[in-house]
Amino acid sequence: MTIQRMDNVLIVVDDLDAVISFFVELGMELEGRGPIEGRWVERVIGIDDVRQDVAMLRTPDGHGRIELAMFHTPTAIRAEPTDAPANTLGIRRVMFAVDDIEEVVARLRAHGAELVGEVAQYQSVYRLCYVRGPEGIVVGLAQQLS
After folding, report:
1. Is the preceding peptide bond at 81 cis, omega within 30 degrees of 0?
2. pLDDT value at position 105?
3. What confidence tens digit (pLDDT) does each residue in 126-136 have?
4. Which of 17, 36, 38, 111 has a CA 20 to 30 Å removed from the CA of 145?
């Protein structure tokens, strides 16, 4: 049997409200938010005494999701530098297709986001950039050129 789809990507954060605001400004929709705790989650993630708040956001087309988790107990730990460069091992970014890259970057800057490098063009196909948002989360933006 093969997989059916990619369901979501989990990002553990310290400031759930700031990160939700960032992704909502990007164009994602908040599906739900609430506390998660109990033996069932402890068994799934392999950590005892878990108490966390979780938010699920979805892309406008309804196919992609990002799950955000803020741990109250146990305290979250940082496994890498805060502003890890693109060549750091692990998941580095989530890429989104956008209609107007300049407009999206401007809106995200109002939420504290900064360009990692610059907006660059790949041939006559795409304009691309990486943006670092709250808590060092990096999102890629890709505008297809017609």
Report:
1. no
2. 97
3. 999 999 999 99
4. 111
The one-letter code for the residue type at 30 is L
Structure token digits, residue 66 = 């990002």
Give the distance from CA 69 to its chain's centroid.
Answer: 11
Tokens, residue 50: 């878990």
Phi and psi at residue 19, in whole multiples of 5°?
-75, -40
Note every long-range contact of 1-9, with CB atoms under 8 Å and residues 24 or more positions apart, other chains counting. Answer: 5/63, 6/64, 7/65, 8/56, 8/64, 8/65, 8/66, 8/67, 9/65, 9/66, 9/67, 9/91, 9/94
Share of the chain above pLDDT 70, in %: 99
pTM of the model: 0.91
Those residues with Cβ within 8 angstroms of residue 39's Cβ, 6 or more apart along the chain or in another chain: none
* Model confidence at 75: pLDDT above 80: yes
